[in-house]
Design goal:
This protein is of the alpha/beta class. The protein has two domains: 2-126, Rossmann fold (3-Layer(aba) Sandwich), CATH 3.40.50; 136-224, Winged helix-like DNA-binding domain superfamily/Winged helix DNA-binding domain (Arc Repressor Mutant, subunit A), CATH 1.10.10.10. It is 40% helix and 22% strand. The chain contains eight helices and 13 strands. Helix 4 links the parallel strand 6 (84-88) and strand 7. The longest helix is centred in the C-terminal third of the chain and has 14 residues, at 196-209. Bound molecules: calcium ion. The site of calcium ion (CA) has 5 residues, from loops.
Amino acid sequence: MRTRGMVSVMRVLVVEDEPGMARALRRGLVAEGFVVDHRADGPAGLDAARFGDFDAVLLDVMLPGLSGYTVVKTLRAEGIWTPVLMISAKDGEYDQADGLDYGADDYLVKPFSFVVLLARLRALLRRDPAPRPTQLTVGAISLDPASRSVTVEGEPIGLAPREFALLEELLRAHPRVVSKDELVERVWGDDAADPNVVEVYVGYLRRKLGRPHIETVRGAGYRVAP
Ligand code: CA
């Protein structure tokens, strides 16, 4: 990534057991100015991702020793949040969901064009590198972003995707009050929802969480009750 007057080198770890694919990835990435390190099996890839100082990991799913799923799951469980782009020959919707559930940031199915891979990789590198906690807990509520699960007093609660996203924003902001506009932007994004939709979803959340865990702060927004 080059900016005026300075050069900052991005380090990418490629974990791929097919020699031809690994070679092509390395050659392409080096040509684009990346520093590339390569490992050919799951355990070696996991170690390199743990201890190497990488800006991103390209991780194959089917690997000798440990699958890519296990590698990314282990990294996230250890609190390592290096962006991971998973690469796989499998293209079932189920596998994709698995990869993302285990904490991968993006997923690409073989065969793919190198141009697409580069675009997705650069998108990951532009993201905020701030570490994300493995678990968000406020009072009795716990939310795990990696496994997308929520518990209240240890009891699992089933939430729809928007409800989950809304709760996640409120927990991340705690103890700050979050305005309706901010919640619309973060949870609904480009869908540009009516700010009143937030009220409706807060209502759903209150019902599912079972107690008035979410406070309305008149004129300001919402917060998780301290
Ligand atoms: Ca493979």
